Amino acid sequence: METIRNLHALICKTGKEKWRVSTKSWAKGAAFTLVFYSDGVLVAATKDANHAVSADDGSHLWKYTYEKIGHGGSYEK
Questions:
Q1: More confident residue, 72 or 31
Q2: Which of 3, 8, 12, 29 is the most buried (most CB within 10 A)?
């Protein structure tokens, strides 16, 4: 059975959903280990890469990968 992963944005004032996007095409269904926000961009970390997502509409902006370090850093080896 396939796991479906989505990223959701909520409106803080009301708690209502602003948008929801599937991460299947760009995060390969991986779970996010960290999400942070800066200047209208959410950066979501998976075990394989960091992904930038527009906070306005959830569109995928870019992906950044680097060599796995495997010693308690950001990525599993």
A1: 31
A2: 29
